[in-house]
């Protein structure tokens, strides 16, 4: 086998792993969009905020330290403790649920029945607010996040493939773990929404508000639940990306990569988000590998968007989205 | 006649005391009065009809009962106590199920899933047990499933249980909506024009189902209907509304001979 082929295969495999992370972010979008028709622009910032909070809690950072110091002339920075990762994750999850509750209570409860564009604008506002809030609360410096996930080259895979093909595949352990966790998360979400009481209620609310009310579903509760789930997904995505490249404010930009994923997969489909993420992940890596050298590289920046554009022209509802049929 | 005295109808159904009482209900939308000072009651086990010409305020009345509208004046008494102001989902949790004039089903879900949503209030397992999908939740799901199958059998929709609702014809959709309301085992079942837009055959089917539901489960039913013939055959007592006011109340025979009713509705619209 020519070496070129292995290189391509390796690129595709790595793309698959990146795709999983795209899919994770896209999943957060789909959850909220399905249940409330809100396209949540703040999903990426939520991932950032979750990661910031996790680092802050684990390292015992004092929230709003700069603000407190500026006002009271004090000099507080740390509580002086270090929490284990699991405790930090549980506490952060609590914060995300609280966030979901506040968002529903203060914003979306008052916007029920409004035009989608108004809801969308509200989430843009929310995104900028949350970004600034995260800054004030935890500071804007880049932080390392280590929750004990394995990192570095997977030597077992490297050796096995080297023995088999005389070419060692370079796969990051973190990517493997991320893939496994994402797979479990997706399976759990599907089971939850298909078979549980709350899942059924969630789908009911997504389908018809009036009918949902008439069978005794508390819409507000379901929306808080959905935002909490999206917050949880954001936390998982934030942990993965944060571990990979540090917790920094550019993290919120991964939300932009989720957009083409959604256009490919369809805004209303959980499997669509997964498949869309994988296609984009693999596609951009392969494209970079095959076509990149001919056009001077850096294709990863635009490939996803061009692919999404093509999809918009030929299949606007995405691969798995609900078909839009207008009856006359 | 004392409204609280239980009695047995000619066809052997037992009618109990007052289940729900509307006391001097007035409902306004801005300056428009949809309902003006209306009082009537619904007794346990009876089929109570609300009739009237278009725009009489019938649907508004049903929406007041089910909590979708909140009247500016008057009280709603349920099971012997005044009902505080409630959200529609709280009313549903109190055992009042309803259908809609324009069918409000979960179009993307199967018939079975739709009917299962009617059981949501009977599922008590907490969110975490549900998420973990442990034995208790499973057992509960099974018990609820049994009740749902009973309803599906009863309304003869077994053959479409797995079909997505969006693919069903109108008449069957109406029946699925009834099934969903029935699955909740309601104390009071509200039907908003259950036969609107149906052909003669479908109407006959629906009438039979309404009678059977009342007979078999003893469910109290309040329904709104346009079709006079159907109402007179179905109901034990009838409220007649016109321009938001009550102009008649009584057995079908009493209502039929009420001059106000004849003037407002029967005499003009029929024969």
Automatic annotation (TrEMBL), chain A:
Bilayer-spanning residue ranges: 12-33, 45-68, 80-103, 110-130, 176-196, 217-241, 261-282, 289-314
CDD domains per the UniProt record, alphabetical: TM_PBP1_LivH_like
Stretch forming the signal peptide: none
An individual GO BP term: amino acid transport
InterPro entries documented for this protein: ABC_transp_permease (IPR001851), BCAA_transport_permease (IPR052157)
A GO term from the CC aspect: plasma membrane
Name this protein carries in UniProt: Branched-chain amino acid ABC transporter permease
One Pfam match: BPD_transp_2
Membrane topology type: Multi-pass membrane protein
Lineage: Bacteria, Pseudomonadati, Pseudomonadota, Alphaproteobacteria, Rhodobacterales
Family statement drawn from the similarity comment of this UniProt entry: Belongs to the binding-protein-dependent transport system permease family. LivHM subfamily.
Record's keyword annotation contains Metal-binding: no
Localization per record: Cell membrane
Chief place where the protein resides: membrane
Keyword field: Amino-acid transport, Cell membrane, Membrane, Transmembrane, Transmembrane helix, Transport
Gene Ontology terms, MF aspect: transmembrane transporter activity
């Amino acid at each position: 086998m020519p070496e070129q082929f292995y290189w391509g295969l390796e690129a595709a495999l790595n793309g698959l792993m990146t795709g999983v992370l795209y899919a994770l972010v896209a999943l957060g979008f789909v959850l909220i969009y399905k249940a409330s028709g809100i396209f949540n622009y703040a999903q990426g910032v939520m991932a950032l905020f979750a990661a910031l909070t996790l680092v802050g809690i684990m390292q015992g950072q004092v929230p709003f330290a700069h603000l407190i110091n500026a006002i009271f002339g004090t000099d507080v920075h740390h509580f002086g403790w270090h929490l284990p990762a699991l405790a930090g994750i549980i506490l952060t999850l609590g914060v995300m649920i609280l966030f979901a509750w506040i968002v529903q209570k203060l914003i979306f409860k008052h916007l029920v029945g409004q035009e989608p564009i108004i809801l969308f604008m509200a989430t843009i506002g929310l995104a900028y607010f949350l970004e600034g809030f995260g800054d004030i609360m935890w500071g804007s410096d880049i932080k390392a996040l280590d929750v004990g996930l394995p990192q570095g080259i997977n030597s077992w895979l490297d050796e096995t493939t080297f023995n088999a093909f005389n070419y060692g595949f370079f796969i990051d352990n973190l990517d493997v773990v991320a893939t496994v966790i994402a797979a479990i998360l997706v399976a759990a979400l599907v089971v939850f929404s298909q078979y549980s009481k709350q899942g059924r209620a969630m789908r009911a609310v997504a389908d018809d508000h009036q009918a949902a009310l008439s069978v005794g579903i508390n819409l507000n509760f379901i929306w808080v639940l959905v935002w909490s789930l999206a917050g949880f997904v954001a936390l998982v995505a934030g942990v993965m990306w944060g571990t990979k490249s540090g917790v920094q404010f550019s993290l919120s930009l991964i939300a932009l990569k989720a957009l083409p994923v959604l256009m490919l997969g369809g805004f209303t489909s959980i499997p669509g988000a997964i498949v869309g993420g994988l296609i984009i992940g693999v596609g951009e890596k392969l494209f970079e590998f095959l076509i990149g050298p001919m056009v001077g590289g850096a294709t990863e920046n635009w490939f996803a968007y061009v692919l999404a554009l093509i999809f918009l022209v030929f299949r606007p509802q995405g691969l798995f989205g609900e078909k839009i049929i207008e009856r006359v | 006649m004392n409204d609280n005295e239980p009695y047995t109808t000619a066809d052997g159904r037992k009618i109990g005391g007052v289940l729900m009482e509307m006391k001097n209900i007035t409902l306004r939308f801005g300056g428009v009065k949809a309902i003006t000072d209306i009082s009537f009651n619904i007794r346990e086990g009876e089929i109570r009809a609300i009739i009237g010409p278009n725009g009489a305020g019938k649907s508004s009345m049903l929406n007041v009962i089910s909590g979708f509208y909140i009247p500016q004046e008057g009280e709603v008494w349920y099971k012997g106590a005044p009902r505080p102001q409630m959200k529609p989902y709280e009313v549903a949790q109190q055992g009042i199920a309803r259908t809609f004039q324009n069918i409000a089903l979960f179009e993307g879900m199967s018939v079975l899933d739709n009917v299962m949503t009617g059981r949501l209030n009977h599922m008590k397992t907490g969110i975490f047990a549900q998420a973990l999908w442990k034995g208790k939740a499973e057992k509960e799901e099974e018990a609820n499933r049994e009740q749902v199958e009973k309803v599906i059998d009863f309304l003869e929709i077994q053959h479409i249980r797995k079909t997505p609702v969006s693919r069903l014809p109108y008449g069957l959709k109406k029946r699925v909506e009834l099934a969903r309301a029935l699955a909740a085992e309601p104390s009071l079942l509200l039907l908003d024009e259950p036969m609107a837009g149906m052909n003669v055959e479908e109407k006959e089917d629906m009438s039979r189902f309404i009678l059977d539901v009342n007979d078999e489960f003893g469910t109290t039913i309040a329904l709104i209907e346009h079709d006079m013939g159907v109402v007179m055959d179905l109901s034990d007592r009838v409220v007649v509304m016109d321009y938001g006011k009550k102009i008649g109340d009584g057995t079908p025979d009493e209502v039929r001979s009420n001059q106000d009713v004849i003037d407002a509705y029967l005499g003009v619209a029929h024969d």
